[in-house]
Amino acid sequence: MEMRRLGKTGLSISPIVFGGNVFAWTADEKTSFDILDAFFYAGLNTIDTADVYSSWVPGNKGGDSEEIIGKWLKNGKVSRDRAVIITKVGSDMGQGKSLKEQYILKAVEDSLRRLQTDYIDLYLSHWPDENTPYEETLGAFAKLKQQGKIRAIGCSNLDAGQLQASFDAAEKAGVPRYDVLQPEYNLYERSSFEGQLADLCVKEDIGVITYFSLAAGFLSGKYRSKADTQGRARKDRVAKYLDAKGMRILAALDQISAETSAKPAEISLAWLLNKKGVTAPIASATSTSQLDSLVKAAELELSDEAMRLLDRAGA
């Protein structure tokens, strides 16, 4: 599997990043271990999680996904240096969202303990924090880099203006900048990344890892009506895609699927891999058969005509 350079971080990541939000949610511990084993066996190497995953599940407290990844790492089937681990800080863990220095320095220790490792490859600020100056947050990250507890830093959910402001603050304070962005971006949700934000990322050589890459599973093609969502864990997240635009996208995916024999999810991820500025999409699986599609997506080549068809459908 050919790895991809992640901006200026020095990290090389797989063309598909595994989304660890499913761990301790729609994938139990044994299933999670089996999927991670298969993911690395297939030549992929990057896992994304966050300290808050999966606190939305009744009985979970947050940190549940990190704990599963930590137990899996401890098993030793894959050496620590082969795995690129991404986690995030700043979401509400019971005390509100925060990117203050004191909060980050404690939160990283909690993540390291749950992950059972002494360093995090890529540490992201999860949300903008208007109550904390970028200089303070980036200063905390700089300390952690100096201590060897994190290797690279990035952010999630910043728009073009906020990302540029963070660059300006880093330069003024003489601290490392964000080198990675994690935006919501997929065939359906395009406006928040395409344009100014994508252009800025290309200009500044920012690594881009997209989340909701399959629109909460909608772009897999298995949800085509409200009836299809009944009883599903992602019911509320999928509902908003069941409109005329969503149906146009599914029709385009179906057409390309008929021509290539690739599944809609594979095509959707391959589309992202061909978009300007994107390093790799995040995608999840809850079975090894679903994982096969992630591997195929990394190797799928879409024609220019297929790309144009998908671009028009999601416009």
Architecture overview:
The protein is an alpha/beta fold and 315 residues long. 42% of the residues lie in helices and 13% in strands. The chain is built from twelve helices and ten strands. The chain has helices at 29-41, 64-75, 101-115, 134-146, 160-173, 196-203, 226-229, 235-238, 244-260, 264-273, 288-299, 304-313; strands at 4-5, 12-13, 17-19, 46-48, 84-89, 120-125, 150-156, 180-182, 207-210, 280-283. It has an eight-stranded parallel β-barrel with strand order 3-4-5-6-7-8-9-10. Strands 1-2 form a two-stranded antiparallel sheet. Strand 8, helix 6 (196-203) and strand 9 (207-210) form a beta-alpha-beta unit. Helix 2 (64-75) crosses helix 3 (101-115), helix 9 runs antiparallel to helix 12 and helix 10 (264-273) packs across helix 11 (288-299). The protein is globular. The mean pLDDT is 95.
Topology, please?
Elements lengths: L3 E2 L6 E2 L3 E3 L9 H13 L4 E3 L15 H12 L8 E6 L11 H15 L4 E6 L8 H13 L3 E7 L3 H14 L6 E3 L13 H8 L3 E4 L15 H4 L5 H4 L5 H17 L3 H10 L6 E4 L4 H12 L4 H10 L2
Parallel strand pairs: 3-4, 3-10, 4-5, 5-6, 6-7, 7-8, 8-9, 9-10
Antiparallel strand pairs: 1-2
Helix pairs in contact: 2-3, 3-4, 4-5, 5-6, 9-12, 10-11
Q: Report strand %.
A: 5-15%
Going across the biggest sheet, name each strand in turn.
3-4-5-6-7-8-9-10
Output the structural class. alpha/beta
SSE order, one letter for each helix or strand: EEEHEHEHEHEHEHEHHHHEHH
Taking all residues together, what is the mean pLDDT?
A: 95
Shape: globular
